[in-house]
Design a protein that fits this description.
Length: 101
């Protein structure tokens, strides 16, 4: 099975990309939130609840710089914050990278 890293950068409050992505996640896929998508991690929101229901096998990443830029210090425990070099490394770790443009 080929594992895919899904990249989401759009706000979860404007469209259905997050829901579509979560619906299509494969068993070993990862999800990296960048840009406005890090707002998905706001506690008590529907997007945050949806992310917390992801299977444990799906790793949830967030770009550290984007979290910091938006003052998002309090994120769910399952979130793995990565910096830009970590982002590049992730893209090589997965078989495929799918950007939800």
């Amino acid at each position: 099975m080929m594992a895919t890293l899904h990249l989401l950068s759009h706000s979860p409050f404007n469209d259905g990309r997050l829901a579509s992505c979560l619906h299509l996640l494969g068993p070993d896929d990862g999800l990296l939130l960048t840009g406005e998508a890090v707002y998905s991690l706001r506690e008590g929101t529907a997007p945050c609840q949806a992310l917390e229901l992801m299977p444990a096998a799906n790793v949830l990443f967030a770009l550290l710089e984007d979290l910091q830029a938006r003052g998002m210090d309090d994120v769910p425990a399952r979130v793995v914050a990565v910096d830009y070099p970590g982002f590049v490394e992730l893209c090589t770790r997965f078989d495929k990278v799918n950007a939800w443009l």
